[in-house]
Target: Lysophospholipase
Amino acid sequence: MKDLFGHINMSSFDAVSYINSHSSNITNIPNIGIAVSGGGYRALTNGAGALKAFDSRTENSTHNGQLGGLLQSATYLSGLSGGGWLLGSIYINNFTTVSNLQTYKEGEVWQFQNSITKGPKTNGLQAWDTAKYYRDLAKVVAGKKDAGFNTSFTDYWGRALSYQLINATDGGPGYTWSSIALTQDFQNGNMPMPLLVADGRNPGETLIGSNSTVYEFNPWEFGSFDPSIFGFAPLEYLGSYFENGEVPSGRSCVRGFDNAGFVMGTSSSLFNQFILKLNTTDIPSALKTVLASILEELGDRNDDIAIYSPNPFYEYRNATISYEKTPDLNVVDGGEDKQNLPLHPLIQPARNVDVIFAVDSSASTSDNWPNGSPLVATYERSLNSTGIGNGTAFPSIPDKSTFINQGLNTRPTFFGCNSSNITGHAPLVVYLPNYPYTTLSNKSTFQLKYEISERDDMITNGWNVVTMGNGSRKSYEDWPTCAGCAILSRSFDRTHTQVPDVCERCFEKYCWDGTRNSTEPAAYEPKVLMTSAGVRNLAVSRWVWGLVPVVLGVWLM
Model:
């Protein structure tokens, strides 16, 4: 964190000395979270640009006025759906950089010009490559089924995602989410804790409401802080038979169920949309017919979810009846409860997060732009009279119309600046909405194919979203300084430090003032803001990166 503030101009306030003076009491040091929303490949690429700008390992990210080092300063990094793909690709490939993932060679990761419906291209005919791709997907899923586990569409979806996101020619069927915890850098605290979010769905349900259970995957555990569960199971041993939180005597422990692709797929189980997109791809018609019939069969069996069976919370003492007595636990896309920003794990009282940088790539408007909807959903859930919020606190958030009418979805906005007005420990939220700085970045969530240049343009735009056009957006030259003030705000409260004048000016400018304009807004159709922001493509072509991904776990041990 001192490195971060070493290249942020805080005027006459010495932030590095401030951190040094309070380092003896770690609770006084800012506790940072970063949240990356869902939204398919749009969210992945826009979020990638943001993390690239926040990563001190990225070339030019630690120059004066940049935010490189924010990623290294963060305690938590959360994602769901497309944002979860981004997290998974970074962490499963040994916490690599976005620059390294922007590859330019067929057969490597992030080759999104090869649609996930067709699979990776080799030197042969695409039709043959695609046929082999589907055979390989089916073979791995069949192996799980043969081992005695229930399977669902998410098993296929997760395997397909792995081919694009994990640096392995076969999509890494042996890579597990829990193995992140075994890497030396994670154990040394050199990276934020990754948190992947998904929602619960009871048998027979099709709609996910605000009362649905929100689950998280971290490298150690799977579970929920919600009162419907309020418990966690060891992630490494998912697939084992648990009863009241224990594996009964005589039962074997299972490892490898937490396949990395399956976990990423769980947070993004876009079943219905996937089947609808089949007719727009150039898969050979015979193969398309076969695949469609398989997916339709899965849907008819209500298998358009991720099945966690055996249910790790079976007869668990803290679970509600619906979860306690269900042998299978059904889990779906983490954004289906409208909380498309994964804020839930970051507002838990036990984590004491001070500030959340919320990168929102949601398609909330008719033209696929954000309008604050995920913030509204999380705020409303925290106030829910059923108690589902379970003691979480969240800053007051205006309605969606106010976001558009006041332009809060066109620039960074701080929510929760005055902690004394909030009951409980609520973080200051730095809202960073997707906006067209250098390209129209409002791609459809279900666009499954991105040419390399389009991918790179989206990533560059994401960089510009969190750097204000690489520092070139008029009237936002103070942005890095004010981001620093947001980081320090709750720490100032705890240490009873007078807020520096430079931060007072920042809060006056960036904090939502509490006013509302709920009238029906005009159509929101932003145009590209600038032709160039000085950062066209920060990826270095043809990196020789030699990733050695995390490889641990088999279906049964």
In short: The longest strand covers residues 193-200. Confidence is low (pLDDT under 50) at residues 536-557.
